[in-house]
Specification:
CATH superfamily: P-loop containing nucleotide triphosphate hydrolases
Radius of gyration: 16 Å
Largest sheet: 5 strands, parallel
CATH architecture: 3-Layer(aba) Sandwich
Number of helices: 8
Distance between the termini: 10 Å
CATH class: Alpha Beta
CATH topology: Rossmann fold
Bound molecules: adenosine monophosphate
Strand order of the largest sheet: 2-3-1-4-8
Oligomer: single chain
């Protein structure tokens, strides 16, 4: 199966995609995680991407498509998280899948009120090694700054700081909302209200797919 999880920053796409990947064996493809790994490795792509990411802007389509293209037809099935985010990316994904003879099976749109998103992002921290997400209010690591899963360092992402968050919301509305309309016509989009506990959201998504 190929499942696309869409939703604004802070909707919980990464959390849910990780759980679904663990329970189904599908491959979790997160362009955000891939880019953060490139930044951490200090690669050419990472150096280019960091400026865009810190401001909350999108990394250019050509770089994103070149980075993810080779993984899209993985025979284990894929859970796409954070891709496609622009119409150019959506058209590229459709062309790659058509070439491989593979359909998109489901597009899930996770919706959350803007006030709740801002609240979530302002208390979010992430392990810089394994990308496990934490909430500094309701689910803080038991040793401050240390990931309970892998021992890596847990930090607030630069792009979760207030100035970048507002820009990310705007960029999402301007560039990603049109992708939803594009897919509403072509594939259909399943809407999930992604508030409540991560367990309850997981249940809703599992039922939808
Ligand atoms: P995420 O972890 O999905 O919130 O992504 C973090 C940041 O990485 C975004 O704010 C963008 O700067 C960049 N990014 C991730 N995925 C994409 C994408 N598909 N297209 C462009 N930029 C992306």
């Amino acid at each position: 199966m190929r499942i696309v999880l869409m939703g604004p920053p802070g909707a919980g796409k990464g959390t849910q995609a990780r759980r679904l990947a663990d329970s189904t064996g599908m491959k979790h493809l997160s362009t955000g995680d891939m880019l953060r790994a490139e930044v951490a490795a200090g690669s050419e792509l990472g150096l280019l991407a960091k400026g865009f990411m810190d401001r909350g802007d999108y990394v250019p389509d050509s770089n994103i498509i070149a980075m993810i293209e080779q993984y899209i037809a993985d025979p284990a099935g894929v859970l796409l998280d954070g891709f496609p985010r622009t119409l150019v990316q959506a058209e590229s994904l459709d062309a790659s899948l058509e070439k491989a003879g593979l359909p998109i099976d489901k597009i899930v749109h996770m919706t959350v009120d803007t006030d709740e998103l801002v609240k979530r992002l302002s208390s979010r921290a992430v392990c810089s090694d394994c990308q496990t997400p934490y909430n500094l209010v309701s689910n803080a690591p038991s040793r401050e700054g240390v990931c309970g899963k892998c021992g890596g360092s847990v930090n607030v992402r630069d792009d979760d700081k207030p100035e970048a968050v507002l820009n990310r919301m705007k960029v999402y509305e301007d560039l990603t909302a049109p992708v939803l309309s594009y897919y509403q016509l072509r594939v259909g989009v399943t809407e999930i209200v992604a508030t409540g506990t991560p367990d309850s959201v997981y249940e809703k998504i599992s039922q939808a797919i």
